[in-house]
Design a protein that fits this description.
Length: 930
């Protein structure tokens, strides 16, 4: 007992000695900007030291310190901490700040918390922010410090030196003086890390207006300062950009910077501007503003795909999370912005252009909206623009200008599902399509460097906001239902407003038009809901425009909606011989698409009767809905079995050709886990073998004998590959045939010429193959294109080869045809035309089960900038029908249960017709080819 007391006493002395080391309390008071008696300090292995003339509260690699404030601060308030992170193995290094700490009336605790941490040898720091009690989900993220180091030996020497200097200038985590800034305002809690906005959370209505501050520092972190100050609330419609994390220059023109006192003079002048601006904090090199010139200096000259979130420089749209000397990307909170105000000038340098672009984008995905403006040269005389005269260090006078970049508020709808939006400040941008493979589409910076220099920037959102929502799933109505929308109007100002709404519609042909107007009186900071009934006369695609005008502010929100013909289709009784059946590729929420339920409803109205899903693991709700809507799946197993029966990836160890009986036993037991039982929504007919396999280039071609060349002979490597795949197929297919003799075996899920090779070369395979799961990506290529790679007419020679051995092969489209309208050569109209003609050409080849085609919706993540990511409807958050959707609906209704008869000659080389019939009617379709 006596020893325990002595130990406690010694530990207490150690802690006290650590607190008092260095200059003791006086240093801590300098660091915390207030007297020591306003804090409770405790911890292990920490001290105060002086480095470079500055007092620092330092923790050791295994030490920590907890600093609890006694003093309360009035809100709104700003808290700024400067610190180093010095992680050493095995510990990470971190700092956490909780501001506004108080007890609420219900005895719960209030706190606005942010933290920053790093682990040894990491390439990024972690950050997080949260509110207690929770008003929204916490925000977590990473800020990367590793500059992209890709270079090209083809660069000129001068360019190479500049780029290598940029790469070398990127800061290192354990050397950088980090900052953490917390702003607790009336309605939101905002956090900034290293001069960059990382997120904001709503504060709730009942926050305590006073609170204390608590700080915790762990494992090698060093605190240099903590400053707290009362701030003035700004109009929530404005969001000043924090540019401190982006300052990269002090020179404006002719090698000259601003004179020493000019930043303070500029700050005073800006206080008179009605727009709230915040000047950045200069960095340790004296850089005091953002020079747009380095933007994209090297990325346009690097080889490889400019993909959204991988590949060259780590991905095109991930840079808001990266400190990079030639990318100026940041997060901003979502709002319906109408302008970006900048304080800046054009340097007038040779080969620079006076253009700046504000490029809003979906983080990690892209889909940008671009807004550009020109900036006057520094020597220009003000004409219709606010100028701020300042002096250079040599005494010359120049002008900075208040330049407004107009933003279309209606375009911001495309980001309305996000809490924070990506924003890149860059030079001129141009549409981009990857070459020679048009895999990626987007907008990238191009042309000469920008000579724009920015000292401050502030986003402004609208005064009257509208939220326009359809009163039907997916903006689709089937007659006799009538389209209707609801509009939620919000007055974001402190005074009443009169809002005028003009609602107009027009159909695709511009024939069926309507206009209606409403006037709404909105009290200050209040909202109102307005119903908009519509009465279209013609079926098809319609365009809706809502013009919102109030107190000189006018903008338009646009939507597409589909008004479909009454559904006259037969459903649920399809079988081969009853014409085609139509389906779609269901992402079911994957790749940021609407959920499975939405897909089912929207595509059923367009005539879909099947899709890729087996519904085996679907919820009871989804299964009931699928049955109600008349969906049927024909797969006997879930789609993932193609990886099992090919013994791919983690299944590879289970393949043992020396013990085929054991291998077959394992395979059957594994397949049973994915077997689909018959039900109203499942008619199990087939199993697919092998996922998109290949033997060599011949897999994706045709036999040369079809174009007068000698027969193709597999190379030694191709023959070896074929024999190995044949062995796996025979082993697996025999086991499946024995266990489930009525199930049709389709080889492969892939290119049909793969099947032709197996049929030609193996009599044993012929006995087992019943058909093909066709993977037919056509992309933007026209279906009438003559025989070549990735064209539908390769089916002409391939099916001749297949039918030599299988006169009536079971054919089902399981993948394709992947037509996007994101391609700048493929408009919405082109997508609709190609999609419709694809179906009709495939039906002409005897392919009637179109289980897969396009997805219902464009992907909203990175996949949506890829030519695989297109759909019949637009992406989230609007998810509206495109022309391709109503074309699909029209086709499925007109040829429902109709069999293809023949092509009809028209006497034209660009127009052809096809004849279909049923017992009831005969149809003639006229098509234009290219």
């Amino acid at each position: 007992m006596k020893r325990s007391g002595i130990l406690i006493f010694v530990l207490a002395l150690i802690v006290m000695s650590q607190v008092c080391s260095g200059n003791g309390n006086r240093d801590i008071e300098k660091i915390l900007s207030s007297s020591i008696d306003k804090w409770n300090i405790s911890g292990v292995k920490y001290s105060t030291v002086v480095e470079n003339g500055k007092a620092i509260l330092s923790t050791e690699p295994a030490g920590y310190v907890s600093i609890s404030g006694k003093e309360t601060y009035d809100l709104p308030a700003e808290y700024v901490l400067s610190f180093y992170l010095k992680p050493q193995k095995p510990y990470g290094s971190s700092i956490t700040v909780s501001a506004g700490c108080a007890e609420l009336p219900d005895k719960s605790k209030q706190a606005f918390t942010a933290s920053v941490s790093a682990v040894p040898d990491a390439k990024y720091i972690n950050y997080s922010c949260s509110i207690q009690p929770q008003t929204a989900k916490p925000i977590n993220g990473r800020l990367y410090f590793q500059a992209v180091s890709d270079i090209s030996f083809n660069w000129p020497e001068e360019m190479r030196k500049i780029i290598e200097y940029q790469i070398a200038s990127a800061p290192k985590i354990d050397e950088k003086l980090h900052t953490l800034r917390l702003v607790v305002a009336k309605d939101r809690f905002s956090v900034y890390v290293d001069g960059r906005f990382v997120g904001c959370l709503p504060t709730g209505k009942n926050i305590q207006k006073k609170g204390t501050v608590n700080i915790k520092i762990y494992y090698g972190a060093k605190l240099l300062s903590m400053q707290t100050k009362k701030i003035n609330e700004i109009d929530e419609r404005f969001f000043p950009l924090e540019l401190s994390g982006f300052v990269n220059n002090s020179v404006i023109t002719k090698g000259k910077s601003l004179a020493k006192n000019q930043i303070d003079i500029l700050r005073q002048m800006l206080q008179k501007d009605k727009i709230p601006f915040v000047l950045p904090v200069p960095d340790e090199k004296g850089n005091d503003h953002l020079d747009i010139g380095p933007s994209w200096t090297r990325f346009g000259a690097i080889k490889g795909y400019i993909a959204a979130n991988f590949g060259t420089f780590g991905g095109r749209w991930i840079s808001a999370d990266r400190i990079d000397p030639s990318r100026f990307c940041m997060y901003v909170p979502y709002a319906r912005y109408k302008a970006l105000h900048i304080i800046g000038t054009f340097d007038g340098e040779k080969n620079n252009v006076p253009v700046i672009t504000a490029q809003f984008y979906r983080p990690n995905a892209g889909h940008p909206m671009n807004f550009s403006q020109t900036v006057p040269v520094y020597s220009a005389k003000p004409k219709g623009i606010q100028a701020y005269p300042v002096k250079l260090e040599n005494g010359d006078r120049i002008n900075l200008f208040h330049v407004v970049i107009p933003i279309d508020p209606g375009k911001m709808d495309w980001f309305s599902d996000l809490e924070r939006v990506g924003l890149e400040l860059t030079k001129e941008v141009k549409p981009y399509r990857a070459y020679p493979d048009p895999l990626e589409y987007s907008w990238h910076s191009a042309g000469l460097p920008s000579g724009v220099h920015i000292y401050a920037a502030t986003l402004e959102s609208v005064e009257t906001d509208i939220d326009l929502q359809p009163e039907a799933v997916g903006h689709v109505w089937t007659s006799p239902a009538k389209p209707s929308y609801s509009i939620n109007l919000v007055n974001k100002t402190g005074s009443p407003r009169t809002v005028n709404l003009t609602v107009s519609t027009t159909d695709y042909d511009g024939i069926d038009k309507s206009v209606q107007k409403q006037t709404i009186n909105l009290p200050a900071e209040k909202s109102a809901e307005v119903k908009i009934p519509l009465n279209p006369k013609r079926y098809g695609l319609h365009y809706l425009n809502v013009v919102c005008s109030s107190e000189g502010e006018t903008y338009t929100c646009s939507r597409n909606f589909a008004y479909l013909h009454p559904d006259t289709r037969e459903r649920g009784n399809w079988s081969e011989g009853k014409g085609p059946i139509f389906g779609y590729w269901n992402w079911s929420g994957g790749h940021d698409t609407p959920d499975f339920k939405t897909e089912l409803i929207v595509m059923a109205q367009a005539g879909a009767e099947t899709n890729l899903s087996t519904f085996r693991s679907a919820s009871p709700e989804i299964r009931q809905l699928a049955e109600k809507l008349g969906y049927v799946s024909y797969k006997a197993f879930d789609g993932g079995v193609i990886y099992i029966n090919s013994f791919a990836y983690s299944y590879a160890p289970n393949y043992n050709p020396q013990n085929p009986e054991a291998t077959q036993k394992w395979l059957i037991e594994e397949l049973k886990k994915y077997k689909v039982e018959e039900s109203p929504i499942n008619k199990p007919e087939y199993i697919l073998f092998f996922p998109e396999p290949g033997i060599g280039p011949i897999t994706y071609g045709i036999w040369p004998t079809h174009y007068g060349e000698p027969d193709y002979k597999l190379s030694e490597q191709e023959e070896k590959s074929f024999q190995a795949q044949l062995e796996k197929f025979l082993l697996g297919a025999r086991a499946v045939r024995k266990q489930w003799p009525d199930i049709k075996i389709l080889l492969p899920h892939g290119d049909p010429h793969y099947t032709a090779i197996f049929l030609r070369k193996s009599a044993e395979a012929r006995e087992l193959i019943d058909g093909i799961g066709l993977d037919l990506p056509g992309f933007e290529r026209t279906p009438e294109q003559q025989i070549n790679q990735v064209v539908l007419n390769r089916l002409y020679p391939i099916l001749q080869d297949v039918k030599k051995y299988k006169p009536n092969p079971y054919l089902v489209v399981v993948d394709g045809t992947c037509i996007s309208s994101a391609d700048y050569d493929t408009s919405d109209e082109d997508q609709a035309n190609i999609a419709t003609r694809n179906f009709l050409v495939l039906i002409g080849y005897g392919i009637n089960n179109h289980e897969s085609s396009n997805a219902p919706f464009d992907c909203a993540n990175y996949w949506g900038e890829n030519h695989y990511g297109g759909g019949y409807c637009t992406r989230l958050p609007l998810a509206m029908p495109k022309l391709a959707y109503v074309s699909y609906a029209t086709l499925t209704r007109h040829i429902n249960r109709c069999n293809f008869v023949r092509y009809v000659l028209t006497g034209s080389i660009s127009t052809y017709a096809r004849n279909t019939n049923t017992i009831k009617q005969e149809n003639l379709f006229m098509l234009s080819g290219q």
